[in-house]
Amino acid sequence: MEVQLLRAQIRARLGFVLDLRFPTALQAMLSLALAHESGIVRMTSAGLADGLGANPSLVRRLLGQLVERGLLRSVLGQSGGVSLARPAAKITLAEIYRAATEGKPLWVPRADIRHRCVVTSNIEPYFEGLAKLADEAVTEVLARSTLADALGELRVLDQRPSERGRPRKRHEPSHVVRR
User: For residues 62 and 31, what is the distance between their CA atoms, to the nearest angstrom?
Assistant: First the structure.
């Protein structure tokens, strides 16, 4: 329900819906990879949602999908949380993308158009084919990079001065379980 409310708010502001599943899942996975390197065993969904500035119910749903796909391990209880199920170098961005989007297409055609001409009569199958090609291209590009690669790229970006020329601020992840 919260996700629907968030989408409605975004649609009201922007006039369209942004799909935040993959960016949120990727950021969560990158945060977990970084936490693992820092000696943090697990992070809670609340801690991840807070660190990501994301809707907690969206984060919980995405974490569940990542667990189902074997990308994360989940431990219940007071010291519970999630952690990477495999080393970051063994998880591709395509796997994260497929888990987050659940095989749903990147774009969907408008189905509310009356069929009046060659365009409106054929746009749905044309657009479905176009969306399928775009999704295949996205998946192919993402399959070339691992979570470890992405974290390495972020570290390179982090070495650049901030826009104001000052060092970037660092924050300890919240809701963590240390080794």
Answer: 14
